Amino acid sequence: MAKLAVIDIGTNSIHMVLAEILPDASYKILDRFKDMTRLGNGAFAAKRLSDEAIGRGVGVLKTLVTLARNKGFERIAAVATSAVREAKNGGDFVDLVEEQTGIKIRVISGIEEARLIFLGVRHSMALSDKPTLVVDVGGGSVELIVGTRDGLQHAKSLKLGAIRLSDQYVRKTPPTEAMVMQLNEAVSRALKGALDAFNVKPFDAVVATSGMAGNVAEIVHLKQTGRPLPQLNLAKVRLKDLRMVEAELSKSSVKARLGIPGLDPKRVDTLFPAVVVLRRLLELSGTDEMTVCDKAIREGVIYDFIDRHRDGLDAEREIPDVRRRNVIGLARRCHAPEVHSLHVASLALRLFDQTKRLHHLGEVERSWLEYAAVLHDIGYLINPRQHHKHAYYLIKNSDIGGLTAEEIEVVANIARYHRRSMPAAKHEGYADLSLKLKRTVRILSALLRVADALDRTHFSVVQTVNVKIGQTLTIMATVSGDAAMEMWSASQRTDLLEQVFRRRVQFSEVPQPV
């Protein structure tokens, strides 16, 4: 039975669940861990993670990864959301975590976050064939999802997270009337815009996930019964109860809030804006109660893992070309991230085609670039550290049918140089190539370095690229969302490309046409 550790690096907290995947494709949670790290404190105004927050985050992740590995969990899936996604130094944080723990964090978009949340909810409670509205109030963002038992229909990520709203509008406790008015206006405007875009009414139910919604349910139950909530999942909270909690929080000092039975002390400054979001959502959706679901993104990651590994396709029918089929077969046996690898290959080939008048290479070399791109991350099978070198070893020692020994050596070298050091005469393998093949490896690995960086988040935010060749090589990236991480990463990977083409490389973003 497979073991999977899932780490959710949120704006407010870092969670880890240890899951055992069972033979019937279900799972069992063996343990859970949580730390209110507050990674996003001050991050949205500054557009940067603070040094203190980075230190806390790395420290917590080192502890969690060590704990998981000590319990025999070698496969670790880590996802990061809005705080890391939006920070200019989010890439530095991701690199630092990989350097100190060996895990590669997947920074996911708001829409992917919504998809994973809905996957967790859909597998955890009975949805009907009528639209249900799911809301997840995090620290940095709010995900709104509309779906039925058959699947997701609409999703929207809004910048209404509790830490973000607290930083922007609630600068003192209790807030002034003006602050409350500004907060309500901002929340109402964003929620109304999303709901109007969905154009779905009435909703069969409103389901709220995340710790914020759960804490509200605990407070309400304690007030009504004097007893702790026996089960968080499927607990109901009425609109009038949300208004009651909101009214109390809006007038309370920090000390008074800490005296509210059931209130999590670590949410003393963020629960108020979260309640405003939930209350306005119920009002705008015309619903008088919400149902709490205690499953969300972490469970969604587990189900996503199960889905991706359960569905095996007939490789021969899918990929008629024997060389390409064997390359993809090797990538799958090594559990390479297929969507990312194929997208990087697509970007790399686009760069190759648009720079032909500079490199003068042909179709054979083009195929080598594609194969190296598909295989560039297979070294993770051995160890995330130095995975580019492990990729070289795996490719070189794999019998890829249809490729000669020399071609395999070239493909292995291209993959080896997709990151870190550039080709050097002292490197074994590269040193033995002919001068012509050394030039080919330098050019193709230069293109691969940039293509890989342009899919840093593994979510295909950069859809395609166009190259303008002049004294400067301008790579125009057509983007479908926030590509700050990709642009930062690509700017760090231009060294070899600038050398082989002897001109400076710069990037620009072009929004994807609607």
From TrEMBL:
EC number: 3.6.1.11
Domain of life: Bacteria
Domain Ppx/GppA phosphatase N-terminal: residue ranges: 27-309
Transmembrane segments: none
CDD domains tied to this protein: ASKHA_NBD_PPX_GppA, HDc
Taxonomic lineage: Bacteria, Pseudomonadati, Nitrospirota, Nitrospiria, Nitrospirales
Molecular functions per Gene Ontology: exopolyphosphatase activity
Record-given protein name: Putative Exopolyphosphatase
Source species of the chain: Nitrospira lenta
Residue ranges occupied by any Ppx/GppA phosphatase C-terminal domain in the UniProt entry: 322-467
Entry keyword Secreted: no
One Pfam family it belongs to: Ppx-GppA
Alphabetized UniProt keyword annotations: Hydrolase
